């Protein structure tokens, strides 16, 4: 009877090992570093959002570049529709990569959506990287730290 109890406890301990790692901060986070840093950009209503490499991995931040394509016979500026972010006022934005791991929300004007592509009338310059995965989390971080 003792061996079956001991075996059961060992099995339970092994089964719980993955749970011990959940929610544990990394060494750098334990040292007090923040996963996200939000800095107000002087002279504007915008902020610069900088994330750590670990935070970028956890958020699975992905980008694509603004490009021009021939749409209905005219060269148009386009970005993936996934890069479009709507604020509470209904304005449209896209997070642009200002530097590695640093992002700034930029206004965009969407002419129309065609499939998974947003055709723009105004927006970031061609070749600028926009966030296609993780933009909502960047916006949440920006809004959470916004000065009132």
Produce a short descriptive summary.
With 148 residues, the protein is an alpha+beta fold.
Task: Walk me through what this model shows.
The strands form three sheets. Strands 1-2-8-7-6 form a five-stranded antiparallel beta sheet. A four-stranded antiparallel beta sheet has the order 4-5-10-9, with no helix packed on it. Strands 3-11 form a two-stranded antiparallel sheet. It has four helices and eleven strands; from the N terminus they run H-H-E-E-H-E-E-E-E-E-E-E-E-E-H. It is α+β, with helices and mostly antiparallel strands. It is globular. Helices cover 28% and strands 40% of the residues. It has helices at 2-21, 27-30, 53-59, 135-144, and strands spanning 36-40, 47-51, 62-65, 67-71, 74-80, 85-86, 92-99, 102-107, 109-114, 117-122, 129-133. Strand 1 and strand 2 form a beta hairpin. It has one domain (26-144): conserved putative lor/sdh protein from methanococcus maripaludis s2 fold, CATH 2.40.420.20. The model is unreliable at 3-32 (pLDDT under 50).
Chain-wise SSE layout:
Elements: H1 2-21, H2 27-30, E1 36-40, E2 47-51, H3 53-59, E3 62-65, E4 67-71, E5 74-80, E6 85-86, E7 92-99, E8 102-107, E9 109-114, E10 117-122, E11 129-133, H4 135-144
Order of helices and strands: HHEEHEEEEEEEEEH
Binned strand content:
35-45%
* Oligomeric state of shown chains: single chain
Helix and strand composition category: alpha+beta
């Amino acid at each position: 009877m003792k061996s079956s109890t001991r075996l059961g406890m060992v099995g339970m301990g092994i089964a719980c090992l993955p749970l011990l790692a959940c929610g544990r901060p990394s060494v750098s986070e334990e040292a007090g570093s923040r996963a996200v840093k939000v800095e107000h950009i002087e002279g504007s209503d915008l902020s610069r959002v900088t994330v750590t490499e670990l935070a970028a991995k956890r958020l699975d931040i992905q980008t694509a570049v603004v490009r021009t394509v021939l749409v209905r016979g005219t060269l148009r500026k386009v970005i993936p529709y996934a890069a479009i972010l709507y604020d509470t006022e209904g304005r449209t934005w896209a997070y642009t990569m200002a530097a590695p791991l640093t992002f700034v929300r930029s206004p965009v004007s969407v002419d129309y959506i065609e499939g998974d592509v947003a055709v723009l009338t105004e927006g970031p310059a061609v070749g600028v990287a926009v966030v296609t995965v993780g933009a909502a989390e960047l916006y949440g971080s920006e809004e959470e730290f916004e000065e009132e």
